[in-house]
Amino acid sequence: MVTQIRQEGFHNSQVMQTASSIIDGIGERLTGSPNVKKANEWTRDQFTRWGLQNSHLEAYHFGRGWQNEFTSVRMVSPDFMELIAYPKAWTESTNGVIKGQAVRVVAKSPADLEKYKGQLAGKVIIFGDMPEVKPQSEAALSRYDEKKLADISHYEIPSEKSRFNPEEIKQRIVLRKAVDQFLHEEKAVAVIDASHGDGGTVFVQSAGSYKEGEPEPIPSLSMAVEHFGRISRLLEHGSPVELELDVRNKFYDTDPSAWDTVAEIPGTDKKDEFVMVGAHLDSWHAGTGATDNAAGCAVTMEAVRILQALGVKPRRTIRIVLWTGEEQGLLGSRAYVTEHFGARPESTDPAEKDLPSYLRKPGTPLALKPDQKKVSSYFNIDNGTGKIRGIYLQENAAVAPLFTAWLAPFHDLGADTIAYRNTGGTDHLSFDAVGIPGFQFIQDPIEYETRTHHSNMDVYERLQRDDLMQASVILASFLYDAAMRDEMLPRKPLPKDAVLPEEKPAPKSSKKK
């Protein structure tokens, strides 16, 4: 079967065609936008064309949709210059073409804003410090060497300190809200900050909120650091700068739903048990979401296409789900897991109300549903275009010998690392949180953090064809192995506050003795 999977995956691959259909044919896929709904529908129909069963969309409550339709930003004095800038999601449009004097504002706390009071009406705000720009001393294309893979394979004993500082994040959120409110009250016409990228790469996410009833900030944009720098220096030298902006954004308020795409290869003798695989279909809006995460969608889709093309009859049902809302906090996978497998109550701690959901302390108890015990495993792809180098065990030691054996046929493709440690930031966490074995693969970073992740350069040209083919083949083999083995994958112990569903008593026999 490994030979057949490799033959189909390397000689008849459709992974790049699938990727192009999502990236080029549909484009950016911000959750709640018309484009992400198109992607849901296209993937649903593509699964059906390939012969998968039960292909459908599952809705969950999201909030307001948003889409940028046009952006033009220019300096018109003291010189003419086209500027590279992108609006942040869920912020307002300009009122047609507007012109305004640029004013520099730097604030480390809400109190710092008071010195600008009465000075910002009709102005375009150049906000924040100028980032340091260093020469690019390393090759843009990066892969894990043996030393780095060895480091990843070494377990990290959990620290008492989280890599996230909730108080620091809370302070940033409070400052951002205070800035938005202050600029609105002062009647500034737009606010622009510097992207942390360079070379024309702009990393941009959101400033407003997708939640109904939240205020809409004034037009907020991220600008290429080199262009932000020129404006900043002119202002520092006392030279007036006038900017011209035309930003057209559209909100979608009629339907607060978002959707996940679901399809299956039906099982045989163990059809009521499931092996699940997924990736997130949504993206940010400045690029076309190629490495984050059309690449993962194309790989997971190609893996099930390979198995379907080979006529595989798995013992367990193989279910693929393409999520949305991942970029806003794993919303699609969390909603799906809550609906089907179990959940914890939301935190009621008032000190955490301004924190994003992934930083709040989980409530108690963990209430599980009957179908939780039917899922053998969930495999996720969401670390860019790089090839698979191994897999994170998420501290599930019992799967180590299984995954070691499953990777053995792919050592020639560079995949041989087993890491006991956890990894985070993507949809396998929704499954791990309810006691279902959830795994993310180790992938070469390529240009993920330096160029493509949430940037205007996250486009088709940044994909690595051979890497995506390699990942598709390995994933297809893992799905086959998990679906065919006699037992489900071993599980970690459930937390002590887990509440199991009540077992229904077996019906009594009506036969008389």
At a glance:
With 513 residues, the chain is α/β, with parallel strands linked by helices. The chain has twelve helices and 19 strands. 46% of the residues are buried.
Distance between the termini: 51 Å
Total number of β-strand segments?
A: 19
The whole-angstrom Rg is: 25 Å
* SS-based class: alpha/beta
Strand content: 15-25%
Question: Which strands sit side by side, in order, in the main sheet?
Answer: 1-10-12-11-15-18-16-17
Low-confidence stretches: none
Give the biggest beta sheet: 8 strands, mixed
Can you describe this structure?
The chain is of the alpha/beta class and 513 residues long. It is 28% helix and 22% strand. The protein starts with a helix and ends in a 14-residue tail after the last strand. The mean pLDDT is 94.
